[in-house]
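Subject: two folds for Thursday's group meeting

Dear M.,

Sorry for the delay on this. The cluster queue was jammed most of the week, so I only got both jobs back this morning. I'm pasting them in the order they finished. Each block is the input sequence followed by the predicted structure tokens. Could you check whether the formatting survives your parser before we put anything on slides? The first protein is the one we discussed after the seminar.
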Amino acid sequence: MAPRFVFATAVALFMGMLTSTTLAALPPDVKKELTELAKELKGIAGLIKKKEVDQAKEIISKTEERLKVLAIAEDEKDRSYASFKTALEKAKNLIPVSFEHEVAPILQANCLRCHGEEQASAMLRLDTYNMIARGGRSGVPVVPRVPQRSGLVLRMVAENDQQRMPRGGAKLPDSEIFTIARWIEQGAIFDGTDQNAPIGDSTVIKKPPVEVVMADGSETISFTKDIAPWLVNICMGCHSGDNPRGKFGFTTFEQLLQGGPTGTTIVPGKPDESYIVDLVLRQEPLKMPAGQAQLKQSQALALEKWIQEGAHFDGKDSKAPLRDIVPTEEAMEAAKLASMSDAEFAERRITQAAELWKRVSPKTEGAAVTTANFYLYGSVSEDRLKELGDAAESQLAGLATQYTLPGGEQAFRGRLVVFVTAERFDYEEFNTVLMIRRTPKAISGHSVITASFETAYIALHDVGDAESEDSLSVTQLMRSLIAQSYLTRDGATLPDWMKQGFGLLEAGLPPGSAYVKAIPKRAATAVSTIDDAGKLFNDGTMAPEEVSDVGYLLVKFLLSQGGPDRFQQLVGELRSNPDAGRAVQQVYGTAPTALGQLFLRSGGK
């Protein structure tokens, strides 16, 4: 069956050429040769039916080579030439289009970013033949033998930039679109070996399996400790991803042994035959690693020795990413902190407090007071710090009674640092210098707890002992921040409304205080512009100065819906699932929007 979609386009081009140009006649001998070549091309259809595709391709190739030799001038390309070209195009279009060799590379290069396994826009995946056949939200993209009705082609030729695919890119070359159209018109046949395999998989040269020899304890060099760390941190930057340097990419131990195009990157037991040893140890100058990174000679010698000993693997899974067996800097720091004694951790916290204060207020000498669970430091008097220290210990004891800690666990390992500034400017410097953010006028304190308790402090301005409808007293402010720190003492990232709302609830505010009475009015203003009540549970919905008021009412409301146990369940869910809406639905069994609307109707009570 002739490929009408593509063939009609070719005919239109030639007819346009003939009607717009005054042509000279072809020489008789050339015209005769074209006629003979056209006759030979007619046999292509029969060869294709007999599946003698290679012979058909050879005839077409010879015909095209002969046409180049004839070098027909533009003004000689008359109707007989156009007729010959039509026959040639028709014969070429009869050649089966290979899905794996011709179509798959086009789809891989242009479509899989949006229609692959990781992201399937419009629920359409094009990464396997079966997924293409399954289709997506708009139906099946390929209708065999009918490219005019195949969405895959129609979206590629769309005039509208918003509708044309690939989205956001230039229109594909006509030759590539014609290739896909011809493949569809020929029946959209799959010529690979596995319809569930990644497209083009059958064309990939498969490397032979490698033999991984596990370490037996006799080795003097450990792969995981002596080799893998610098391979991951120095080499994998160039030798991973879609276009690895030298076409040698590795992310697992097995891939490392498989080697690159030379196949001799690592030859277990034979460092002299291992190309990687030449690159990092013997060449002059050394070729690897490229760029600014440098290996120590001891590292290169360790590699040579490891290969000499048989290139044994002392990890758990040779197919797992090497990155997983090499601890990150964060993991190494966490391990270091975990190994510290309580005394060492406490000393670290004191040193850290002095360093942070110096960055914030280098010209002000700070006073310090130590209690069982807190290290208070700041520009107020020592007596003031002692007063606040007593209040802090009392607050912590109450929290530990109501929200029980696991047996023997210390609330704040190494103590929680409490920075107290006499001047508001110094407090604002904590935000400017350490947090790189502005300080709204309504904010006079904040808490910082990082994973593994590496950094743990609260910072506040001594606003005085008087409470008003717009401001907490300094003790109430500190109690609020301690409660926030208690809630996030494991370094978990919880929504600001939850942290600050919980903090206010545990700040020791009298029920009839001026500040508490003013909260509903401020909160009502904050939520008045929210178009979806479900967004109340998302971080960033409210401005920083609005969060604590709305959070206070929201936490109070959630406690009324299931008590402290269910609230603690929500906290636990959010520690492992940062999607607040999903966590709320999981714990309270109600969609976030519905629960948010119920909260708004309750007036925060």
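Second protein, same layout:
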Amino acid sequence: MLAYAALAFSYKDRPLSERKKQREARNTGQSSASLIKRLFKGYLKPHLKGFAVAIFFMAIGAAATGGLAKMIEPIINQLGKGQSESYILGLGGLVIAIFAARGAATYFHTVIMNRIGQRIVTDVQQQLHRHLLSCDLSFFHTNASGELMMRLTNDVGIMRQAVGECMTSSFKGGLTLIFLVAVMFYQDWKLSLAAFFVFPLSALFVAQLGKHMRRYSRKSQEETGKFASLLSQIFLGMRHVKAYGMEAAEHERVKGTTEAVYKLAVKGYHVSALANPMAEILSGLAIMTVIFYGNWQVEQGHTTTGALFSFITAFVLAFDPMKRTAKVNAQLQSGLAAAERVFQILDTKPTIMDKPAAQPLAVSDYGVRIENVVFNYPDGSPALKDVTINVPHGKTVAIVGPSGAGKSTIINLIPRFYDIQSGRITIGGVDVRDVTMQSLRAQLALVSQETALFDESIRANIEYGRVGASFDEVKRAAADAFADGFIEALPQGYDTIVGESGVKLSGGQRQRIAIARAMLRNAPILLLDEATSALDNESERAVQDALRRLQKGRTTIVVAHRLSTIVDADHIVVMDQGRVVEQGTHSELMVKGWVYAKLYGIQGGV
């Protein structure tokens, strides 16, 4: 029932062939440069003005930091040498002004960057959700809902960190380094060159760490997606988990997935943590060089103690943004890995689309004709083999047969949830592939055996059939579906929240709300796929009466397992193994004594 997520093993302990496959998989990913370019072009470019303002405040903060380092020289050189009180007060006031300017600048650029980052998150989530809505049903059958939710929430959130935190740290750190390096070169350019060997070595080391961080981050996000998907399936199937006493087994499966996430996270921490000790060692060597060389310069009278302290202060302050570069790189690589996963979804093109010249469906005859249709499942196995069915305008045609015969497949092909391989499906003589899907589906009302109710009020679930319908119309549709009785008996009536998938209602109640939704839609074509399967006998009789009233003058295709519900259909089509094996009215098929008559007899019919 639930997919099992394998434990993650140490990379070095895996077979050579598996490691080779992993290397090949990594090589197929997008490069950092291409991902950054796409992020900038698609999401950052519209906010360039905001970035410019934020960078202006970052420059103020960076200049204040550089000014603070420069202020060390007069403080060391002049204090304690009989300077006037006004001079000391002025010096102190200048230091306070520098700190105030830096604090204010930090506040403004932080607010601006976080606002831009959150705007980008919102834009990406909206774009991703809009794209998912355009994807084919087959896409959702091959991608777990938990995994898709992780792309919309977790991955997009990590992208926000890459945009907000990395952009802030990179620009602010870079500008701060520029001002501090300027102070260092102003004080002693030779000493600056001697100390600068740490920067290229640190940058090279950080770049190497970034490659590993990207890989571990991508794997961690994939495992987190599996974890979310597993939880989603367990929660939705909780009734069966408890019924079969599978709590312990499900806990072990979740434990395995969380352990995999834990191991990958620890590996990522190990890699990112290496940056700090390396930066500390290199910086220690650089400071040692500065101290020895600077002391010699002071002894020789080539510089002052204040100038040396100013230089050391600038170098120490520059050391902080240099260390943050490693952290920024780790965040950037995590963000790029998340962006790659998001772009994978956005780059998935739907296979079922409107033709460039598609026109709205505009017919007066809503007869449906299925002509010589051949349809195969995605794996290539045949589902329908040269099927021809005619449903005249205003008539009811029932499709029956054993499980796996292809009945529900036909229901899915009419709204173009899937496209056929050959043949054609027409409405009023117009091929459904030649009209826009929106206009096609606007003429259809679907009720299936899998009632899709949302965690909203009963009224909202019925209104889903026609957005903007009045409350009176909703109540009328509920009454026609014989649902008004139990709805009005509920404490909140039509405002009752039904819970996820309608869990707070019985199966029959959920089905009647779904039927009320279809009745409210008032479409000329009705698709009923086991629409009364979850109803008890009394409710079924009531709903059948309502459906008969609804079907008058409308083109109706009914897929039914319970043959007693379709004996009054204008025409019955019997299918078996993807083919039409016989058709006619109930009485005609009973006289033949073939497949239909046998099925009817098995179900207790005469």
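Two things I noticed about the second structure. The beta strands are 368-376, 382-391, 396-400, 422-427, 430-431, 444-448, 525-529, 555-559, 571-576, 579-584. Residues 85-134 form the longest helix (50 residues).

Cheers,
T.
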